[in-house]
Amino acid sequence: MVTHARSPITSEIDFEAEGKQHGFLRLPHSVHRSAYGWIPIPIAQIKNGEGPTLFLMSGNHGDEFEGQVTLTKLIQTLDADAIRGRIIMLPMANYPAAKAGMRTSPIDDGNLNRSFPGDPDGTVTQIIAHYIEHVLLAKADLAIDLHSGGSSLHYLPTVLFGARKDPAESDAILKMMRAFGAPYACRFARSGEHVSSAAARRQGVASITVEMGGSATVSMGSLKVTEEGVQRVMAAFDFLADSNDSRVSPAGSTRTVAVSSADCFVYAEEEGLFEPRVELGEEVKAGQLAGMIHTPEMPWKPSVEVRFKESGLLICKRVPARVERGDCLFHMGTELAL
Ligand SMILES: [Zn+2]
What is the structure's pLDDT at 169? Predict the structure, then answer.
């Protein structure tokens, strides 16, 4: 059992050992039904000799599934002799949330991707965040955090990426984005200090976050992009022993956009039933009608128009039709030439 000085989590796998290992990160959790119990967070590592470390994570939000399917299949099919270096995979990062199929943990309501850098003395979600940042990312050179839109959003298959102060890290991130080869890529300005990309930045790890589908389901098209993207990143950074590995397909073209202002996000300003007037992948103009918010509980009340404040490409939309004030309805990216 591998312990860490600050974290209560112990690991069943030895991160320094060669070969393929799988097991659990054990997070002690004493509750009514299990006095001396622990939460079993599944983890796998494949190591073959010296070389850099790739950290792959999904289930950061528990209702985002393409990444969980991708890593589950990869853990079953990838063998040590097929790789060089080390690949660490954490398919259900916020295990309690992923087990429940929820964005946040049913134990402490924790949103893992708002919990970094975490706290080893904090709640279950904060302890997981601390371990990911200070133990797992601390071992990594590259990282991919596999997301989707979850229960409330749906994304076109999009790589989210950012710039770093360190030019070598920025270059590696661009190389990862291009290698992943999703149809869309969106450059974000800083998304705050509590997301996984900030944790990766603090650990000097080049990282991308990918948003693959959503709607609390597994869409076949988005899953294909996810699986192929992960293989291409492994190939581009020489993690595959066979440079002609047949699992690696050529990348398609990627359209790059940017979140250039807060107006790239369109919010409901009324409560009601949202009727969209545009679809994902459409180019929209500032001032254009995005949709209508109706009030069927008082159908005589005039419906309210929602209009875009920015021009760009729609890469994300809300899924549930009922909306409350403050819900995100659409998110776009403005043209970005790289
Ligand atoms: Zn997510």
Answer: 95
